[in-house]
């Protein structure tokens, strides 16, 4: 069987980490694309030289030509600019919208059958715009946010409870911004609801609230520390888990930004919800029941996404 082809559009911090992980996990041959000449080629050469040590045979190439992503099975998009301290994800909108147009056209022309995972921020608006510009079916264009936000939430919960991260199942819904909705009612420690575990461990509701807040601003915390860019290891790992779910038809239920048509009271927007990812791409949105407070919080998050889409439409009339 021929190897799968993984195209990484954007060969920056996340793109390079994605290539490394994809090679180590043997997902397929890898093409790194970037507009900057030399960077994707240099990273591809460096990564190729991991092969003899790690024992992988994947072909890893770098390019500045969209023709080289032809026939890709999976495309992961990180092209654009990342945040610097003091910037919100929304501050990136103007620049990254133009980038999504070029990327969407490149994908449509060269690999219209691919499963596309967008990471570029502001995520919910960029994945929507990428779908619009590419014209691909909505089930084949998804955004990576919820897996990362849930991983951040799970990390903080595991630290607080003093338990293995392997036993924490944390749930985050909504947009990938300050209004995201970490859902405590669906978060468990090996099946034990977080609220019950908090009682057992003597952890107050206020403290849980602080953990929720730290999750919401988890990306910003890293931007403030790095000063020159934003998180890249965990975003890359999260996107790779989504690519694996698609390539291996795992039918995993992962929180992803997908086009929601009707469920959660949302119509035609990309929002973070639990979705089955398998060979059909985003196969089914799972609608969980929420408390009134969670519903209200999700509504705020959805409104924030809508505002971003309006801003996109104002910037590019072809989206209106
Ligand atoms: N086409 C392809 N690549 C592009 C384009 C474009 N039109 N414009 C910029 N790039 C490339 C840059 O040259 C750079 O190599 O995208 C890459 C982005 O890499 P970094 O700046 O290192 O950013 P990274 O940390 O990888 O994050 C990328 O993901 O999480 C989001 O907010 C983050 O939007 C940002 C994106």
From TrEMBL:
Superkingdom of origin organism: Bacteria
Keyword NAD: yes
GO biological process, one term: lactate metabolic process
Active site (record annotation): 176
Recorded catalytic activity of this chain's protein: (S)-malate + NAD(+) = oxaloacetate + NADH + H(+)
Function: Catalyzes the reversible oxidation of malate to oxaloacetate.
HAMAP family reported in the protein's UniProt record: Malate_dehydrog_3
Identification of the protein by name: Malate dehydrogenase
Gene that encodes it: mdh
């Amino acid at each position: 069987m021929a190897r799968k082809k993984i195209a990484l559009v954007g060969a920056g911090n996340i793109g390079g980490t994605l290539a490394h992980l994809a090679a180590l996990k043997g997902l397929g041959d890898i093409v790194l694309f970037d507009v900057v000449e030399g960077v994707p080629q240099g990273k591809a050469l460096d990564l190729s030289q991991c092969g003899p040590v790690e024992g992988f045979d994947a072909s890893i190439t770098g390019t500045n030509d969209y023709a080289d992503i032809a026939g890709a099975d999976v495309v992961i998009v990180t092209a654009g600019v990342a945040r610097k301290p003091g910037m919100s994800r929304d501050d990136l909108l103007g620049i990254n919208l133009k980038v999504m147009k070029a990327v969407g056209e490149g994908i449509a022309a060269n690999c219209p059958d691919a499963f596309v995972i967008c990471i570029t921020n502001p995520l919910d608006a960029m994945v929507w715009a990428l779908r619009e510009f590419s014209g691909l079916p909505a089930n084949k264009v998804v955004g990576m946010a919820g897996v990362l936000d849930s991983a951040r939430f799970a990390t903080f919960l595991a630290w607080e409870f003093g338990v293995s991260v392997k036993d924490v199942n944390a749930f985050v819904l909504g947009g990938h911004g300050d209004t995201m909705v970490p859902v405590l009612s669906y978060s468990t420690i090996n099946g034990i609801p977080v609220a019950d575990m908090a009682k057992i461990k003597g952890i107050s509701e206020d403290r849980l609230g602080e953990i929720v807040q730290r999750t919401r601003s988890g990306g910003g915390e890293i931007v403030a520390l790095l000063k020159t860019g934003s998180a890249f290891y965990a975003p890359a790992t999260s996107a790779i888990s989504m690519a694996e779910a698609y390539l291996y038809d795992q039918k995993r239920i992962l929180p992803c930004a997908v086009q929601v048509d009707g469920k959660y009271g949302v119509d035609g927007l990309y929002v973070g919800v639990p979705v089955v990812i398998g060979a059909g791409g985003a196969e089914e949105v799972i609608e969980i029941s929420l408390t009134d407070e969670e519903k209200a919080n999700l509504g705020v998050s959805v409104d924030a996404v809508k505002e971003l889409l309006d801003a996109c439409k104002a910037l590019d009339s072809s989206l209106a």
